[in-house]
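Fold Annotation — chain and its backbone
Next Lines — sequence and tokenised fold

***
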Amino acid sequence: MVISELIKYVREQLDDNAEFEARQLVMHIMGVNHTELILKSRAEVSEEITSEIMRCVKRRKNGEPLQYIIGTAEFMSLEFKVTPDTLIPRSDTETLVETVIDCIGERKVTLLDIGSGTGCIGISAAHYTNADVTFVDVSRSALSIAEENAKKHNINAEFINMDILKQIPTGKYDIIVSNPPYIETEVIETLQREVKDYEPVLALDGGADGLKFYRRIAEIAPSLLNANGIIAFEIGYNQGEAVFEILQKNFENVKLINDLCGNDRVVIGSLKRN
């Protein structure tokens, strides 16, 4: 079987986004890029490689996310290592990063990324601006992935293993950014199987009403932020009003920002002046 035939066969085994996923799987196992895939389309594929690709196809058909199979995900035009210990970066979250980048502008700032996972938010912000980043996560495994990703993109950062619900980081920051767990506990079992069966519940479960982490971070943020400091959250599509209200106590100029689909996606505010 030649490469083009293999891609066609794999595509026929998959469902949504089959063409893209077939190419990604073949490129990953064969260790080639998109250009090489085209140039070598008539090259024969060994039985060993074909078998390995078929094993990956089986994993994908069982619901395992493509990103976990190939071990990477693209976010903000950067490549990030992902594992089942981390949430998979999603394009919706780029709205949060773009908002933070706009706030930073040309300034030199300190940024605290709470619940960092792969580190994609803080690393992307630092890559495109002049920000010093500190990452906080309750999962040591996730934090180690964030550290690998930071090194890959030449981002010098601090990494803190901490349960934000029980502890408070030290230091002062210009910006706090977070995409915290925000799915209601009882809703998790209704999510698509790629999410509920494979992504870490620790990174999904936001408590009974999905707002547990927003309340906690908004409560401790004033002690962590410099004067005129900014807080920015990613939120679920139906959480805009609730998180807006949570921030009203200690923050001003609170705004809701929509994603490209028109859904509420980001809530941002600046620390009230004393």
Summary: The radius of gyration is 20 Å.
